[in-house]
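thought: fold this chain, then report.
action: predict
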Amino acid sequence: MRSLIAATLALGLTVSVTKSRVLRAQRAPISVGVLAGANLSSVNVADAGLAVGEDLLRNQRRGGAQAALYATVPVAGRLSLQPELHYVQKGGRGSLALPIDPEQLALYADDEVRVGLRLSYLEMPVLARVDMGGAGRWRPFVLAGPSFALRVGCRVSANIGPFGVSGACDDNSLLPDEPLPTEPTDAGDPVRTTDIGAVGGIGVEGALAGRVFSVQVRYTQGLRSIASENIPGLAPKNRGVALVLGLGF
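observation:
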């Protein structure tokens, strides 16, 4: 009889604790905040680089800024859904050594063509967030999920020595008078207006001066080519790493 009473009390206590946890999870508020940071981005032209003759187009990173609004929606336990809306600057730079005869080299004072691409996007990552807990003031967490982007700015530039041109990506006046063999004769905007990527990151979050602060490191990899035209062997994709600070309300 005593065993039955003890088992009943234990079952009742377990149900009470479980119900209390469920109710707390249901009452967990949706938190909102802002993010701001800096990134280093590049455009991965091809898996093994772009061979042009005997030379190689060398990709270089470009610095940019980003800012965002976010909401953290509790799902279950330590799992949350975190949709975000970012303004982010991306793009890349590259240089290509050209075979130039001495007379032209004296004119251009350089044997490298430097190209640049500046892109601006409105991005909407939809991230799964897992809080890792921890006994200290700062709690680690991880983020991962897809990101959908709408291009809002695009500029391209090319320079050799003191000479250079730049303009909007859809400015056909920057194209040569005679199209290249692989270039369509009705060339328009060479860069897609939308993009899809994958985002992964880690961070720590804690209270400071009565506010919730976070520090995050994120990596973004484009999942499709940003080029409007399909060119065999080429698949330029956005990629970058960012340091982001967050402030929750």
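thought: worth noting. The chain has two helices and twelve strands.
final: tokens above.
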